[in-house]
Amino acid sequence: MRILILGGTGVISRCIVHELLLKNHEIFIFHRGNTKLNFQGEVREIVGDRKDSIKFKDMMKNFKFDVVIDMICFTKEDAQLTIDTFKDQVEQIIITSSVAAYKRPLRTVPAVEEQEELTDSPLFGYGFLKAEIERYLNDLVENRRIPITIIRPSLTFGIGAINLGVLRQNHGIVDRIRKGKPLVMFGDGTTPFTFTFAADLAKAYAGAVGNKRTYAKSYHVANEERHIWDDLYLEFGKILGIEPKIIHIPTDVLYKFSPELFGHIYYEKKYAGLYDITKIKQDIEGLDLNISLYDGVKLMIDQYEKEAKEIDADKDKLEDDLIEIYNQWTLLI
After folding, report:
1. CB 111 within 8 A of CB 278
2. What percent of the chain has pLDDT over 70?
3. Residues contacting 212, CB < 8 A, separation 6+
4. What integer pLDDT is reported at residue 160 of this predicted model?
5. Measuring CA to CA, how many Å separate 63 from each of 7, 146, 203?
6. CA distance linking residue 11 with residue 202, whole number of Å
7. d(Cα 6, Cα 72) in Å, to the nearest integer?
């Protein structure tokens, strides 16, 4: 099939491209041209800016695709442009949402798609905007029968990701453990959660492509391995052979310290985040999300070492300051 990926160069997108190439699909990537493509296989490049909607629509008239996968759909307007451009040209449109679109706390744990509700609170902007996208798409599916598939990734890590850790300090986690410096964890570290890796998530996208059982349906996608949040840092410690020092700070305290940095935790991740993926496994035969937390973290550490990644000095100092302030505060109570 001829497949267009809007985005195509991000952490998850690169894994999707790799998975689709293994299935011998013809791949086109639309992006702004800021990232050099490096794939093991032929990938055609379309360079442009989707924010220029008129030029984008005119450009797409020159191509014929079977499936469009939108990896850069962050607002209702983005979704409208994708639908308006391709609704009469392609067999299927796959839109990327997020489990952040669900109202918190989840109604069921592990969460089941049909029993969850979309958030209506704008306080967590990312999740609210994804929910607005889904409400718009659901109306199209119900009233106009457009073959849309919605995929909601759970928290996903991968090579090149910058979202690893409570402070999203990434390689800084390794540095702090090696230096014997504590790591900040929100709450008491026992919130149930699942950690997914991009190579696994890509299997779900590839399995949905051209799969009529997935048309007009929505799915969340998550690893089925169950963890608590402390496990993330403990796995780093196992691989490095050093027991990490974890400092638990109440989520409310972290949020008051920096709403911008800790908003995603306060509004989403402080709640249980486990997901039942029976629905997507029934519709995508043989789907197996099997990258363990240990193996995924080891992959990340190996890549950090290979690339000799520098740590974020500002994040490192912020973590030090947070711990010092919290320790001083606890002495006063």
Report:
1. no
2. 99
3. none
4. 86
5. 17, 20, 26
6. 10
7. 6
Q: Where are the alpha helices (DSSP H) in the chain?
A: 11-22, 53-60, 76-86, 125-144, 171-179, 198-208, 230-240, 251-257, 259-264, 278-283, 293-307, 313-332
Report residue 81 as tokens. 């442009």
Residue 20 has, within 13 A of its CA and on its CB side, a CA count of: 29
Tokens representing 63? 């191509």
Q: What is the pLDDT of residues 179-200, one digit of tens each?
A: 999 999 999 999 999 999 999 9
Residue type, 131: A
- Is the confidence at residue 280, as pLDDT, over 70? yes
Domain layout of the chain by residue ranges: 2-158+194-221, 171-193+227-272+292-332
pLDDT tens, position by position, 67-121: 999 999 999 999 999 999 999 999 999 999 999 999 999 999 999 999 999 999 9
Cα dihedral 292/297/298/304 (nearest 10): 150
Written as one letter, the residue type at 2 is R
Residue written as token pair 């609210």: 128
| 3-state percent helix, strand, coil for the chain, nearest multiple of 5 | 45, 15, 40
- The C-alpha atoms of residue 124 and residue 191 are separated, in whole angstroms, by 19
Which is nearest to 91 in space by CA: 18, 1, 175, 162? 1
How many residues would you count in the chain? Answer: 333
Q: Kindly state which CATH superfamily the domain 2-158+194-221 is placed in.
A: NAD(P)-binding Rossmann-like Domain (3.40.50.720)
Distance, in Å, from the CA atom of 21 to the CA atom of 93, rounded to the nearest integer, reads: 19
118 - beta bridge partners? 102
Residue 192's beta-bridge partner residues? 228
What DSSP letter does each residue of 212-271 carry, written as one string?
GGGTTEEEEE-----EETHHHHHHHHHHHTSPPPEEEE-HHHHHHH-HHHHHHIIIIITS
